[in-house]
Structures are given as structure tokens and as C-alpha cells.
Amino acid sequence: MLQPRTQEEAKRLTWRVFFTYQLNLVPALVPLVYTVALVIGLTGEEGVLALTYIIPPVNALVGMLGPWFAAYKITKGALISVPGEPEERRLERILKAPRALEMAWSLLVLAGTAGFIITACLWFNRSLWTVFWGVFVTMMFCQLGMLQVRISLERLFRPYAIELFHANPKAKLQGGGLLWPRQRWYLGYAFGLSTITAVVVNGTIVVRQVYNKFEQLIAQSSQLDSSQLSTLLQAARSELVADSFLPLLLIETYLLANALLAGVRLARHQAEGMMAVRESILGLATGAPKLPEWLSTDEIGDLSRATANAFDQLKSLSLSLAEWARLLGRSAEELGDSSSKQGTILTRQAAALQETQVTAQEIKQTSALAAQKAEAVLKQAEQADLIRRSGEAAVEQSLDGLKVIREQVKEMENRIKALDQSARQIANITTTVKDLADQSNMLALNAAIEAVRSGEHGKGFGIVAREIRTLADKSIKSTNNVRDILYDISSAIRTTVQITEQGSQRIEESLEQVRASGNNIGQLSVIVRDNASSVKQISVAVTQQNSGIEQIFQAVNELSKMMDETLSGVRASDSAMSLVREVAAKVNDFVGAYSWHEMSAKNSTQMSEDVVSDIAPVGGVDGRSRPDVLR
Predict the structure, then answer these.
(1) What is the largest distance, in Å, between two alpha-carbon atoms of the chain?
(2) What is the mean pLDDT of residues 397-402?
(3) Domain 324-591 carries which CATH code?
């Protein structure tokens, strides 16, 4: 199914194709009808009846409906884009469409002529053998008129073909046969067709006129004598010349004009193709390349495709050359910058080499001083090792002393805890004494009460009871005092225990610190030993450094010579880079003169212009049309 825009374009082009067919074949209708009527042998009255009743329906079928339907089917089939089909096949269909329409319409005209002759022969009682003669004459007329129809149709279909051609300049077409006209046989075919048509039509007119006169003479000769027959033959000859002169003149004039116009249009057709290819080649020569605005099935179309292929190859080569030149220019710029930087760096290196010589001498002097310093450091390292040993011994003694103190603190902690237990037991005893004093106080109170009851006899006992009560109160007070003192002692003991535990913890921390100090001293000892070994190695290295300095002197001198040679090479590279820049710039200018990118843009925009309806009839010039871009 066509897209809506393609469907509309197919309909619009169909009407233009149909009008082209009508305008180019209408001038041939009068001589064709006259010749066919002459072949059948119709009289004037019979010819009028045929024109009135037979020609209109035949023309409606094979001159209007049939050609339009054929134009629509072939045009739509040419413009349609089949999914998955290469664009080359669609381009081939567009190029074959003019010739396909020419053959389809020719068959319709032959079928219509055959139907007309058969109907006329049956109606007017004529011989049916004239059907073959009339169809042959019609075929000659039709093919001669189709020469110009094909040229006009090619002009209508060419913009669509060029659009696809410019989109696919490398398209490989595989057309051939009668639907693919070639100049090597089509030009001869056109010339032979014109000649044969003139001979056949003129012969038909002469033969038919002679045949009609011959029948009249036969019908009249039986009633005349020899003198009258001679006069009749002379009159018949004069009538034959008079009756044949005007039709022959008109038909011959038409055939000659048609052949001449067909030849002119064919020549112009070829000239336009050659001019399109010429303009394309001139565009390449002037630096404005463009693809040929031409595509056909003949050798000029082959030349146009070959030119487009060559342009495509030149375009790829030129764009590649431009890219290479751009890369070469950029590389030359980068190499030039690198060379300039390298020259600067080499100059700095030369100065650095001179400074290196001075520095090497200073290094030689400092190496000797470094050897002396290494010896002094080595001696200090040995003294540090002795101090390290004594420090380790002191740490061991400190550890032993702290361990003894820790044991004593532990023993003191245990004794204080035992004292706290004894204080707690005394507190319990005071509680018991307080309980006894309370009971004594109660007994004394009871004794005093009994003494009061006894009267005089109990006074002495009451005094004793008071004294016991007084002693009990004192005992209670003393017990409370003792208990308070014991509480204070217990609190002090607990505080002492806490302090002792804290002291024990601090002793443990001190032990850990002393152990850490011992470990640090051990690590310091390792470092001191390593430093002593390093100092020995430094002393050996400094000794070797003295001999290495001499070799550095020689190497620096060699580097100075090589540096001078390198600087000379860098200056030569600068000259070469300048030459490379000039060459790259010339290549860029040369390639830049050919606007390959603009060629693609012009080809794409030029094919998207509005369609221009300009169809030329016979004797006119066919106008070019630009199709809408089909998607």
C-alpha cells in the first residue's frame, strides 16, 4: 500500500502521463482513421456512420479508460517502494516505465483498431481480410507516434529517477530487452520505422485507390468499345491522380513532419544528456562538482552513471586526501611545536650539563666530608649501643623492684581487709554489750519498782537498782561511742583498701610503661644497629662515589658533544616541518576548491522542489518537472 503522499503523487503523475499520451497521439488520429477507412473501403456516408456510432465507444474504451488505467498501474508500480527491496530495483522500474507505457498503449490501440475494423466490416459487409492490413497500418502509425511519446514520458519520469540516482550514485542497474532502449538499436529502429511507415501508408493509399478504380473499370468495361475504354482509362488515370494527390500530400506531410520532429527530439534528447554530463564534468574542472542531472537507459545514461561513480570515487579520494592533509598538517604543527619545545629543552639541558660539571666537583668534595661524618656517626652509634645495654639493665631492675612493691602492696591489702573483718566483729560485740546493758536497765527498773512495793525493806535494794541502772546507761553510752569509733575505723579501712587497690593498679600501669619503655629501648637498639650498618654502607658508597664522579665527568663531556649534534638536527627538522606545513596547506586549498559536501546538499534540495506542470504537445518542448520528495 502506498503512503498517502506517494499515492497522491502517483495520481498526479498518472494524469500528466495520460495527458501527454492524448496530446501526442491526437494529431495522428485523423490520418489514422482516414487510412483505416481507406483500407476497409468505406464510402463517405459509411465513414460518417462509423465515426458516429463505432469510433466513440471504441475510443472511450481503448483511448480513454484503458490508457488511464494502464498509466496508473505502471506509474504506481514504478513509484512504489517495496519493503526490503534494494533501491536499484525501484530505479529500474522507473526507467522502464516509459517504454512499458509505450508498449501497453500500442497494444490498446491495436486492439481498438482491430475491434473497429471487425465491427465496420460486419456492419457494412466488407471483407474481414482487411483486419490484418488495417492492424498493420495502425501499428506503423502508432509506433511512429510513440517515438515522441516515449521522449515526453522520459522527461516526466526522469526527475524521480534522478532523485534515486543521486541518493544511490553507485546503483548497479540490470535492465535489458525491449523495455531498456539503447541507442545502438533504437536509432536504427526509429529511422527504419519512419521509412517503413511512409512506404506502407503511401502504398496503402495508392493500392487502395488503384484497386477501387480497377473495380470501377471492370464494371464499366463490358458496356464500352475499345475507343471508349481508352478514353475511360485516361479519365480513370486522371481521377486516380486527382484523388490520390491530396491524401498522399497530406499523409506524406504528416509523416515527414512527424519523422523530422521525432528525429529532432531524439537528437535534442541526446544533446541534453551529453550537456548534463558535460556540465557535471565542467563542474568538477571548475571546483564545483555536482552529479549529472541525467539518467536514461541508453549509452548516455551509462556515461552519466559512470561519471557519478567516478565522482563518488574522486569524492572519497579527495575527502580522504583532505583528511590526510589535515592530519598531516596537524601532525606537522604538533611536531613543529614538539621540535621547538625540544630545542628549548635541549638548550636547557646543555646549560644543565655545564652546571652538572660544577655540581659533580662539589659532590666529590662533599663525598669526602660525608665519609668523615659517617665515621663519626659510626662511633656515636657504638656509644648509643652501650647506653642502650645499660638502659635495658636498668629497666630490668626497675621491673624487679616494681614487682616486689606490687607483692608488698598485695600483702598490705590483705592485712587491711583482715583488720576490717576484726573491726566488724568488734562492732558485733558492742551490739551484744548494748543489748545486755538494755536488759540490765530493764532489770534495774523492775527492781526499783519492786523496792517501792517493799517499802522500808526494799530501800537498800532500790539504791542498788538505781546504781545498776546508772551503770547500764553509761554502758549504753560507751557502747554507742565504741560503735561510732568502730564505724569510723571501718570507713577508714575501706578507704585504705580502695587507695591500696588504686596503688596496685598504678603499679601495674607502671609495670606496663616500664615494659613498653623496655620494648622501645629494644627497638631503639635495633635502629641503632641498623644505623650503624647503614653508616658502614654509606661509607663504602661514598668511596665508590668518588670513582663514579670521574666517570660522570667523561659522560657529561660526551653528552655536551651529542647535545650540539642534536640541536643541529632539531634545526634541520624545523626546516622540514615548514616544508610539510606548506605542502599540507596546498593540499587543503586544492581539495577545498572542490565543494563535495555542497554537491550532496544541492542534489538533495534540488530534488525537493514543487512539481512544475509543463507538458509540450507535438511540435513543442517538454518541460521538466521536479517531484516532491517521496518517503
Answers:
(1) 233
(2) 70
(3) 1.10.287.950
CB 140 within 8 A of CB 196: yes
Residue 261: name the closest of 624, 513, 619 by CA: 619
Q: Is the pTM of this model over 0.85?
A: no
Burial class (CB within 10 angstroms; exposed 0-12, middle 13-18, buried 19+) of 586: exposed
Is the separation of the CB atoms in 531 and 318 below 8 Å?
no
Do 197 and 255 form a contact (C-beta atoms < 8 A)? yes
pLDDT digits (tens, 9 = 90+) for 169-187: 888 888 788 888 888 888 8
CA atoms of 447 and 444, how far apart (whole Å) = 5
- CB contact at 8 A, 106 and 138: no
Collapse the DSSP code of 580 into the 3-class scheme (helix H, G, I; strand E, B; otherwise coil) and give the result. helix
* Backbone torsion region of residue 619, taken as left when φ is above 0, otherwise alpha when ψ lies between -120 and 50, otherwise beta: left
Q: Which of 409, 388, 476, 406 is nearest to 440 (CA)?
A: 476
Pair 102, 179: CB distance under 8 Å: no
Spatial distance between the Cα atoms of 286 and 219, rounded to a whole number of angstroms = 80
Which segments of the chain belong to CATH 1.10.287.950?
Answer: 324-591
Residue with cell 504506481: 76
Dist. CA 372–CA 366, nearest whole Å: 10
Three cell numbers, residue 248: 498522399
Least confident of 20-29, 291-300, 371-380, 614-623: 614-623
Q: What is the DSSP letter of 126?
A: -
**Grid cell of 448 as nine digits:** 526499783
Within its chain, how far is the Cα of 469 from the centroid?
Answer: 121
For residues 435-445, give the mean pLDDT. 76
